[in-house]
């Protein structure tokens, strides 16, 4: 499937100020992505060109082990002080062999630097985008995952032992962005169940974290699911809680600094060109920028909180048979019997069957009221880490939501989880 073949009638909410947003905005930006990724030298030259425009300022945050600059570009309306606007920090290519983040962020910068569109101009009066297109230039120069010292930067956010992570951390503390995005790519083949498709990972609603943090991440991940589905892009959303490994960038900023933070993983493989993978990142950045610009300070609205199951509206009451025969079609959800995951003896496979109508947008799997995953494309499955669950009865739920975040169907069942190797029963 080509990610840039989009439905022409859609108007991208990510750039709606009031009216006038163009339907093909993502394809337009993605058209700037080259067939081959920029080298470090080419990226620096592109940033120098952008620096000459009145909307973009570029600077070096520091240098790597091998003397290359970690560069950051700031784009906003030139009549506004970027420090007085809401700020979105985009970190790309911590892993040097994952170029889509570099290309998507450069394409977005180039578009916003010159576009005279009403929606773009309105966005740039509200949000300053801080983009680090190549966080690991030493690794990019050799197309290797690790940096010039042989370290995985995305496992260095507790130690902050590397010049690249220290430079980005210093920039974060200086600018105090309102939202952080970390752009990555998935291998074409993996045994991990969660690595089979594009995914986003963000921060869950949790009693030990600020309420607004979970609310903002929940609302935004729901909008990501809706818009990815409308553009024909499969997406799974996973959620982090205190106790998860904060050596990873997005968890460091989300769980330690308690700022809404999103990890984007674009699936590689046959039929997914560099431009296709970058388009997934571009759409995601635009949706999040829109949420930051226009909905960041919206009051808490339970209808838009799919992660807070207790606050979600109850499923519709079943209709009488006579009404069902004559009434409009409804979305239905049916949970399958949990079974051992054939790929991993420590996991249990949860499945659901969805009979969707036009208003169906995404499905969640939940365990005792905690959302495990949000997904917008079948087959609807989730591999539950049984080893991390306590023995005893638990409630498993699958809930369907429409594009406004309202629960329109659900199915629940109580099961008994036992440690790996034993049978799972109701």
């Amino acid at each position: 499937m080509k990610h840039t073949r989009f439905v022409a009638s859609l108007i991208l909410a990510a750039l709606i100020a009031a009216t006038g947003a163009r339907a093909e905005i993502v394809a337009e930006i993605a058209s700037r992505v080259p067939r081959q990724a920029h080298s470090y030298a080419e990226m620096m030259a592109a940033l120098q060109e952008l620096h000459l425009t009145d909307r973009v300022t570029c600077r070096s945050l520091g240098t790597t082990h091998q003397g290359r600059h970690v560069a950051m570009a700031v784009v906003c309306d030139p009549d506004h002080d970027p420090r007085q606007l809401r700020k979105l920090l985009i970190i790309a290519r911590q892993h040097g062999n994952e170029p889509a983040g570099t290309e998507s962020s450069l394409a977005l910068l180039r578009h916003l630097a010159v576009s005279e569109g009403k929606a773009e101009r309105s966005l740039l009066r509200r949000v300053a985008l801080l983009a680090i297109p190549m966080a690991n230039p030493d690794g990019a120069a050799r197309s290797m995952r690790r940096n010039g010292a042989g370290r995985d930067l995305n496992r260095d956010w507790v130690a902050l032992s590397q010049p690249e992570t220290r430079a980005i951390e210093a920039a974060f503390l200086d600018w105090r962005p309102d939202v952080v995005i970390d752009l990555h790519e998935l291998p074409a083949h993996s045994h991990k169940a969660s690595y089979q498709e594009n995914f986003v990972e963000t921060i869950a609603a949790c009693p030990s974290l600020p309420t607004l943090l979970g609310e903002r991440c929940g609302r935004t991940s729901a909008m990501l699911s809706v818009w990815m589905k409308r553009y024909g892009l499969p997406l799974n959303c996973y959620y982090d809680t205190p106790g998860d490994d904060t050596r990873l960038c997005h968890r460091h900023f989300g769980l330690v600094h308690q700022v809404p933070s999103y990890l984007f993983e674009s699936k590689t493989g046959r039929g997914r060109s560099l431009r296709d993978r970058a388009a997934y990142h571009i759409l995601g950045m635009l949706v999040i920028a829109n949420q930051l610009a226009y909905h960041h300070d919206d009051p808490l609205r339970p209808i838009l909180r799919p992660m807070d199951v207790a606050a979600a509206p109850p499923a519709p009451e079943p209709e009488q048979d006579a009404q069902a025969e004559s009434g409009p079609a409804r979305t239905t959800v049916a949970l399958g019997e949990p079974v051992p995951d054939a790929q991993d003896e420590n996991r249990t496979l949860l499945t659901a069957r969805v009979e969707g109508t036009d208003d169906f947008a995404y499905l969640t799997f939940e365990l005792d009221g905690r959302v495990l995953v949000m997904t917008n494309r079948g087959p609807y499955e989730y591999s539950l880490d049984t080893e991390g669950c306590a023995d005893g009865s638990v409630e498993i739920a699958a809930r369907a939501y429409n594009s406004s975040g309202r629960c329109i169907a659900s199915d629940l069942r109580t099961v008994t989880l036992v440690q790996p190797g034993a049978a799972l029963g109701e």
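DSSP finds ten helices and 16 strands in the chain. The longest helix spans residues 274-294.
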